[in-house]
Design goal:
Ribosomal Protein L22, Chain A, 5-stranded antiparallel sheet, 4-stranded antiparallel sheet, about 210 residues, 6 helices
Length: about 210
């Protein structure tokens, strides 16, 4: 089973990434789904989505959990029954989870594609990136910014939160591997530490929530 990588963020936060190479039949083995999740998977028309769904349960097993240990709230945010925090992501043939003992966390994996150049104005002030002349570098940086905002959105999980207007990501260099973020929404400010890495044309971003002000 191809556990792609495990990242120890600190003593209480771990990231697990899976590269989906198995068939759906292989991924079903050893996995027990709740009735609700069985229905969810059966409703997925895409085989890759079903394989991704199952691979996330294998990642949960790596972290010591099974499907019944997780539930979703009304906003669609996943939670663990033991009170620890979890976030999950799926992009193409990669999936990932982040598990934290105490702090709220979010994770996102994105495939680096030139499509992001066309939609960047919807989630970030594009004029801030006009000094980047290299198209490949621009795609990489915008993908990181999107992943940062997606990770923070998964943590915050409130209806009406805007990537463009409410979430700010501090500037960074591609070589930094980390940055910070801030959400200012309805008079409340929350701060986040963010890490990112790239592999095989994909970007993985994960964030943890600091104290609100």
């Amino acid at each position: 089973m191809p556990l792609y990588t495990t990242i120890t963020v600190n003593s209480s936060i771990l990231v697990y990434v899976w590269k989906i190479e198995e068939s759906e039949t292989q991924l079903v083995e050893g996995i027990r789904l709740t009735e609700n999740c069985q229905r969810r998977m059966q409703g997925m028309r895409s085989e890759l989505h079903r394989r991704g769904f199952l691979s996330i349960r294998h990642l949960m097993a790596e972290a010591g959990y099974e499907d019944a240990d997780m539930y979703y709230d009304q906003s669609g945010k996943p939670h663990l029954n033991d009170g620890k925090h979890i976030s999950i992501t799926h992009s193409n043939h990669f999936t990932g989870i982040i598990v934290s003992d105490e702090k709220e966390v979010g994770i996102d994996i994105e495939k680096q594609r030139d499509k992001i150049l066309r939609i960047a104005h919807k989630f970030t002030p594009i004029e801030e990136y006009k000094t980047i002349a290299n198209t490949d570098a621009l795609i990489r940086k915008l993908t990181i910014v999107w992943g940062c905002k997606e990770s923070l959105y998964k943590i915050y999980a409130q209806e009406g939160l805007s990537f463009l207007h409410h979430i700010d990501i501090a500037d960074f260099s591609l070589s930094d591997g980390k940055t910070t973020g801030e959400i200012l929404y309805k008079g409340t400010t929350s701060q986040y530490d963010i890490d990112f890495l790239e592999f095989e044309g994909f970007t993985c971003v994960y964030a943890l929530r600091l104290v609100d002000s």
